[in-house]
Amino acid sequence: MKKMNWKKSLTLTVSAALMLSLLAGCAVQPTEQASAESNAVGTVLLSVNPEIEVEYDKSGLVLEIEGLNEDGKTVVKDVKDYQGKDCRTVVSELVRDIYDDGYFEGTVDGHAKNIVLKLKEGSVYVSDEFLQDVADGAREAVQKCGIGAKTMTVSEGDLDDSGRIGQNKAKELVLAQLGLESASFRDHEYELDDGVYEFEFTAGGVEYEYEVDARTGKVLEADIDGNDDWDDRDDWNDQVEFDLPDDDRDDIEDDNDRNDNDDQNDIDDSDDRNEDNDDADGRDDSDDDKKSVISVPVSDDDDHEDDDQDDNQHDDDADDMDDLADAHDNDDQNDVDDLDDDDDQDD
Which residues lie below 8 Å from residue 327, measured CB to CB, with a gap of 6+? Predict the structure, then answer.
């Protein structure tokens, strides 16, 4: 009986130890996960058509990336070795991946789709120029890919109380997407029950109808049939002028300058390649001879000098003719005198 109690006690002890170890393991995993999440201090939302969130720590190093829509999930599924890199580098690499996957091929009114970088509400700036630095990384990728997309930023100050993009910032985004600096908007109450701003505006005598996603900042063509908020536009206010802020104009001009410089570099590279090809085929001397032929216009003075030379030449020719004629006359006269002498001798 004692042996049985001893064995039962040992079995219970081992079972209890196993249970404790299992419970300890379950408790550790949530603790480690909570610790990792506590390291995150902010999130940048990258939107083109793919929507991707980039989570970072207090040093601006990436902890996690996540695709929010189907296109975003498609892009990030093959992205590896991003953890521990700075946000600028990861965003730049993501933009190149988005380009490689063909998401910049579609346009908005003939313009390449812009990139919108939005700092999530409550996110910490790891430096004063943090968001701008991340945007510069995206712009570098755009330049390398050779596309005309512009990079727009949305900071926490551009958000409303609910964390959505404010109305004025949404107007800036749609103007920048269409390459406009100002427009007259018909304002109205935006309920945002569907999270979309409906904009009707006029610029340069052209009327536009577009929508802006209040969460991502993406510009969409107006869905007049599918969005019932457009039904009330007859009651919207008269048009109010709105200008693109100087900061956004500066960013757009910088993007345009980068694209112009890239185009100029392409032209220079093409010229260099042509010159290299000439050197390679051994025809550079012939090309140089052709290039060095320069037509020099003849002045009026040169024309007069040439005319004088022609006149002198004609005068010389006339004198020669006269001398020749005199020579013939003298010869004839001598012949007559010789005949007279012969007659005298005969007599």
Answer: none
Extract the tokens encoding 119: 């700092």
In a domain, 5, yes or no: no
pLDDT at residue 232, rounded to an integer = 72
CA distance 324 to 319: 9
The continuous run of DSSP H or E covering 89 comes out as: helix 87-100
CA angle 248, 250, 254 (to 5 degrees): 115
Residue 291's pLDDT is 37
Q: Give bridge partners of residue 153 from the DSSP assignment.
A: 117
What is the DSSP-derived secondary structure letter of residue 120?
Answer: P
Residue 6 domain-assigned? no
For residues 46 and 43, what is the distance between their CA atoms, to the nearest angstrom?
A: 10
Judged against a pLDDT cut of 70, whether residue 260 lies above it is answered with no
Residue 275: HSE in the Cβ half-sphere, 13 Å Cα cutoff: 8
Which residue, 129, 126, 140, 124, is CA-closest to 90?
140
Q: How far is CA 14 from CA 8, 10, 19, 206, in A?
A: 10, 6, 9, 82
Buried (b) or exposed (e) across 261-296, using 16+ Cβ within 10 A? eeeeeeeeeeeeeeeeeeeeeeeeeeeeeeeeeeee
Number of domains the chain is built from: 1
Span 246-264, average pLDDT? 58
Parallel, antiparallel, or unpaired for β 115-119 and 151-154?
parallel
User: 48 in a domain, yes or no?
Assistant: yes
Residue 42 · residue 124 · CB < 8 Å = yes
- In our burial notation (b when 16+ CB lie closer than 10 A, e otherwise), range 160-186 reads eeeebbbbebbbbbbbbbbebeebebb
pTM: 0.63
Domain limits for position 66: 36-158
* 103 in a structural domain: yes
Contact indicator for 255, 139 with CB cutoff of 8 Å: yes
